[in-house]
Design a protein that fits this description.
elongated, four-stranded parallel sheet, binds iron/sulfur cluster, 4 domains, 4% strand, 8 strands, mainly alpha, 694 residues, Fumarate Reductase Iron-sulfur Protein, Chain B, domain 2, Rossmann fold, 54% helix
């Protein structure tokens, strides 16, 4: 009876403490700004089943994925056994379920628990070996200081101890059953703990009963401890991964939100009589502290497993920069917990003179990000460190007017010239000299329609190297008799570099100007050779009133080839040539266009060679996120050099690209490696023009 009372008190205490702690976590998450996420519910459930339950993302690396699956599934299912243990504890019974379930079924589940317990045990031992013997680098990065490493070790040891206690308890029970000792009646099948019989058989029945009781109590007290420990640990992801995946962003990875408060101000600046819907969450622009992030970003921070997959894929981190996306998440959680403790002590209006930006995350970290989305792609629980980085950048730029000098220059150029470089807007059409390029204004004036609007972009208009790409694509359009037109001098920067640099005002000013022009002409379909323009026009303009069908030129060209409108010469000079393709982050990960450019290359009957990092795993060129306009952040290597080394490994003489920034960065990397003679960077449109001698 005494043991029943003690057990019941422990049980109630553990559950009560867990409930209090979970409420504290929910309170902390709710300190974030409110956002509504309840659309596309069917897709959300499907994603949760595949990613959180099915561990889909983990299987990119099959060996650790399998181990993790054993540990996770085993740990969750074995806890069903707790139902029996808790009932036995409260009512003083022994193996109570055996009396109610059919014998065969009871034997099956107990045997299943044993196999799973063994897999959990083996998985945890291998995980420990990977950490401490193989010393996998991502577990030893700078941010993995004493506590995060100790936390992981505590979790693994606790699981090993719990499983050992569970199996020893069963083993002792089995031997006592075989001796018909006391209340140990025959129940259960023990395929794993039977292996302990030779050892346990040497004990007297009284000693075995003590061992069985010790393991039973040890196991359940361990479970109660663990239940309350996980709240303070990275292991909390076993619970939070499910809602976190459900609430994750379903739109294209390349889409950055458009701040409603900025939209209102921009609309009023452009038209003082405009009607605007007030932002329900005004406040500062961007985020300085955890209160300025939204609740989903804070839930992300609590869901982070600290696995470091994001950091090991981050181009900035790989090349020795200060930035680590895992640290961004760990810092956000640490600051949030600090804020929570402050509120508990001093109330919601406390001040501690600290903030996430500044005290935890530095400017140098933020400006090293190329916005490549590799961290988002890698995360097994769909966490988005990039959204936090961008919100912090927005605060730096819009509230504190702080940005690297080169970026300030880039932004003034956009403001003054409608392009990130100091060129006169009247020079926008110089690329077209000698070509017959129809202007949309003329086409419309004649009462005709253009099948597509060819969006040139600033690089195509002003960068000497990229002008060649634009000319090649225009020649293909003329050759295939596509009715197209360009905006000419009416085109201005889409706002992409300003938006990625955190200047939401400027980005939206540019966007609204372009949307007005495009809507006035009734444009429906846009094709562009720049993935940054493509991403902005396709994903970010709709929120501001610009809705068009937008295609990257690779997809458009691939369709022309598939429809037989564009045919490559049989004996083209690229036939049999080794070509590798570099996935631009804003085409690939941001918009999932992987196959179209490859199919274009295959149409030459070329020898297409993949780099070790390609498609979803592709490595950034180093130019995205406005990096191409500034000096690279301090590190031990340029990102473009790292990528050039991967290009060199393929032995290809041509690296095909579909992005002006990738072209610039890779040209630079190839120069740094003295490979100008061996490797040429070419856009896919240039390759087609070369193949068909246009
Ligand atoms: S977006 Fe790319 S550069 Fe930025 S933190 Fe993520 S992986 Fe690193
Ligand atoms: S953000 Fe995701 S990938 Fe990065 S450490 Fe956390 S769980 Fe792992």
């Amino acid at each position: 009876m005494i043991s029943q009372i003690i057990f019941t008190l422990l049980f109630i205490g553990a559950v009560a403490m867990f409930t209090i702690n979970v409420r504290m976590v929910i309170r902390n998450i709710n300190l974030g700004r409110d956002i509504k996420i309840n659309d596309r519910k069917g897709e959300r459930w499907k994603q949760m089943i595949l990613v959180a339950f099915g561990q889909k993302k983990m299987f990119k690396r099959p060996f650790p994925a399998l181990l993790h699956l054993f540990v996770y599934v085993g740990f969750v299912i074995i806890n069903v056994e707790l139902l029996e243990i808790v009932t036995d504890g409260i009512f003083g019974t022994h193996r109570v379920l055996a009396q109610y379930l059919p014998e065969g079924f009871y034997n099956f589940i107990i045997a299943g628990f044993e196999v799973l317990a063994f897999l959990v045990l083996a998985g945890c031992v291998i995980f420990l070996c990977r950490r401490y013997i193989a010393r996998i680098p991502r577990f030893w990065n700078k941010e993995m200081t004493k506590w995060p490493r100790t936390d992981a070790t505590i979790i693994l040891f606790t699981e090993i101890i719990l499983m050992t206690l569970f199996l020893t308890m069963n083993g002792s029970d089995a031997v006592l059953q075989s001796r018909n000792y006391s209340h140990y009646f025959s129940a259960g099948l023990f395929p794993i703990s039977d292996f302990l019989s030779p050892l346990l058989n040497s004990f007297s029945s009284e000693s075995l009963e003590m061992i069985e009781r010790f393991c039973w109590w040890g196991h359940i007290i361990g479970v109660f401890f663990f239940l309350n420990y996980i709240i303070w640990s990275k292991h909390f992801h076993i619970l939070l991964a499910f809602p976190n995946v459900w609430y994750t962003k379903l739109t294209a990875k390349g889409e950055f939100t458009s701040l409603a408060s900025v939209t209102n101000e921009v609309k009023l600046m452009l038209d003082p009589n405009a009607t605007v819907t007030p932002d329900p969450n005004p406040g500062k622009f961007g985020a300085k502290d955890v209160f300025d992030l939204n609740w989903k970003q804070l839930m992300d921070a609590y869901s982070c497993t600290e696995c470091g997959r994001c950091t090991s894929a981050c181009p900035a981190n790989i090349t020795g920069k200060l930035l680590s996306p895992r640290k961004i998440m760990m810092d956000t959680r640490d600051r949030l917990e600090e804020v929570g403790r402050n509120i508990d002590k001093n109330g919601i209006d406390f001040t501690d003179g600290k903030s996430l930006l500044g005290n935890y995350i530095t400017e140098e970290e933020l400006w090293a990000c190329t916005s490549c989305n590799a961290c988002v792609e890698e995360c097994p629980v769909l966490i988005d460190p990039l959204s936090i980085i961008i919100d912090l950048r927005r605060n730096l730029v819009m509230e504190e007017s702080k940005a690297p000098t080169e970026l300030t220059g880039m932004m003034s150029n956009i403001e003054n010239n409608g392009a990130p470089w100091k060129f006169s807007p009247s020079d926008r059409m110089l690329w077209a000299e000698g070509l017959d390029i129809p202007m949309l204004a003329d086409v419309v004036a004649k009462g005709e329609e253009a099948e597509i609007l060819f969006w040139i972009g600033c690089a195509g208009s002003f960068d000497d190297r990229y002008k060649g790409v634009i000319r090649s694509f225009a020649k293909i359009l003329n050759d295939t008799k596509i009715k197209f037109a360009v905006l000419g001098l009416e085109e201005t920067c889409t706002g992409d570099p300003a938006k990625r640099a955190g200047n939401e005002f400027l980005a939206q000013m540019q966007a609204m100007q372009n949307i007005t022009t495009l809507n006035n002409y009734g444009v429906k379909k846009i094709v562009t050779a720049c993935p940054h323009c493509f991403n902005t026009l396709k994903n970010e303009y709709p929120a501001l009133g610009g809705n068009y069908e937008v295609l990257h030129h690779s997809s458009f060209l691939q369709t022309l080839i598939a429809e037989g409108k564009l045919v490559m010469k049989e004996d083209n000079p690229l036939k049999g040539k080794a070509i590798t393709f570099h996935d631009s982050c804003y085409l690939g990960r941001a918009n999932e266009v992987y196959e179209a450019p490859r199919q274009v290359i295959e149409s030459f009957k070329a020898d297409l060679r993949e780099m070790k990092k390609c498609k979803t795993n592709g490595l950034c060129c180093g130019g995205g996120g406005a990096q191409v306009f500034k000096e690279e952040s301090p590190g031990n290597k340029r990102v473009s050099v790292e990528r050039t080394e991967q290009i060199m490994e393929t032995g290809a003489g041509i690296v095909a690209v579909g992005c002006p920034f990738c072209m610039t960065m890779l040209d630079d990397g190839i120069k740094q490696k003295n490979q100008e003679e061996n490797i040429k960077v070419k856009d896919i449109a240039e390759l087609i023009a070369e193949a068909n001698e246009l």
